[in-house]
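Give me the 3D structure for CBS domain-containing protein.
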Amino acid sequence: MVQRLEFLSKVSPFNLLPTEVLEQVADQLQEIRYSKDTVIYQQEVTKMRGVDIIAEGEYESFFYDSQQNKRLLEHHHSGYCYGGISVLLNRKQSIRTVIAKKGTTVFFLHRKDFRSLCKAYEDFVQYFTADFGKRMLNDEFAHFYKRPATFEESYIASEQMYSRKIESIEYREIVSCPQGTPVYETARLMAKHKVSCIFIRDEQAKIVGYVTDITLRDNVVAKQADTAQPVDNIMDNPIVCISTNAYVYEAILMMFRTKTRYLLIKNGDEFVGSISRNKLLAEQAQSPLVFIQSVKQAISVQELKRKWESVPQMVTQLLGRGVNAEIVNQVITTIADTIAIKVIESVIATMGQPPAKFVFMVLGSEGRKEQTFKTDQDNAIIYEDKANEQRELVREYFLSFAQQVSEKLDNIGFSFCTGGYMAQNPKWTHSLSHWKRNYESWMTEAVPETVIQFSTFFDCRYLYGEAGIMDELKEFLDEELQKPLGKIFFHMAKNALQYEPPLTFFKNIKTFTKGSQEVFDIKKSMTPIVDLVRMYALRHRIFEVNTGERLKALKEKGVFNEKEVHELIQSYYFLMGLRLRNQASQIIRDRTEPDNYIDPDKLTKIEKVALKEIFKTIDNFQTRIKMEFTNNLFG
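Predicted structure for CBS domain-containing protein (635 residues):
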């Protein structure tokens, strides 16, 4: 008893209690011993009976993410009290998972006794609430603590207009002119800065009004007014402003209430920017089409980065509503394309107009319009052939252009290609004639290395520039593909057969160990479908880039029947849906980099059954490839 009392008097927050109370607490303690690696509490599962004070040994506490990775790992030693925050602030459920290490002994205090101390002694309860407050300042702790059971749905809701502030939205810099500026000059300024609203300042530089496209239409064009008159004769007012600390919903209500279409944004006493009603409403819209429009209106790399970071939320919502993964892929691709085009245009605006016509094309999964969240940059540039004296100048421009585009895309979230398939690589920025030679040599040599390059660059798609250049390249390819190419198809078939469906002899899902989990690689499971469809598309000179579109074209040519096409499309997009859901969950729920590993134990029974059938389907089609392209059923 004396020993416990002496121990407690050194433990926070028990050392805040009067001695006579401490004696009563010491009398209520139960001594508990734990063997090595005993799981004592599980996060959001174990209901806390009370609190533990470590006497000797060690507790290891952490959060598990959905991939069973330990996050925010902490080690607690003698004198540490665990459970107070859980009892007081988490519905009596353990906030974290706790494992006892070798030789751990704790003193246990029952929940009712702990609560009695909290009610009686303000300093005692404040110790736990203050500790909790400090922990909530850690963004990762707050993320895992606040995560509800239906996280994907509530995450979307938490980002709505009732919780977001104006400072979180990208607003435009103020474009203004003096009140005596002629109307026509005001319109020129608006055109120069590409704005639909310009603010008017008086002689003291105070903003006294504004002019919009609608103002010019109604007050000048419709009335055939004099465009040389001072702009303050036709400007609109009053000025409506709002603080950066205001909530978005306040701004929207203010706009509807005052019937203004533009707000000035104020930080303290200083105007720092303006925002339109359309921009605000677009920020709130969950419709992918409206979201894409908001991407088009983005004005900086940082805003584009934020837009891309919010795409997993949209994908989760779309998949949750039952939207087919093929459509979701199209949404992701359109957003990614829009971002890339914005980046390209911004670089051109900085560097000046290109010295030659060109095409910026995308390759691989991006080229096939099958982008996921674990996709790096795959792109290349084709420019028109120029006279000898201009070649170096043209090449220098496009290599510099490509580097700037790639760096901005990387900053936004499209990481550099580890294999170097990017336009900033001098190998993949060339003239049209050079590109024709590339394709010709890949098809002629037809060794495993060149076959991989040919496969990657066959999955190419126009993104920006002179479409005619791309058309000419495809016409060239169409002619080349009519030549005997048995060797290249043989190597493509061998490559396609490297990836076997992950099924055991007994038709169970074959896994491998990654960390503490047994997983399979869903990307490699999908690769055989991509490969076999590409091979048949090449053989029949089909230039659709998307796997689903290629399959439909192959059905039109009678290569696959309707049942076969249905099986492959259903299989491919079922796998794609699983892949996208898993990656979106890793980004949103776990705040980790997405990968392609799936734990079968996390799947439903229906999903497992569907997977096994899909893997059997792929296996059957691979047998067909062996026969048709290698003439060897066993090779």
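Residues 148-160 have pLDDT under 50 and may be disordered. Let me know if you want a second pass.
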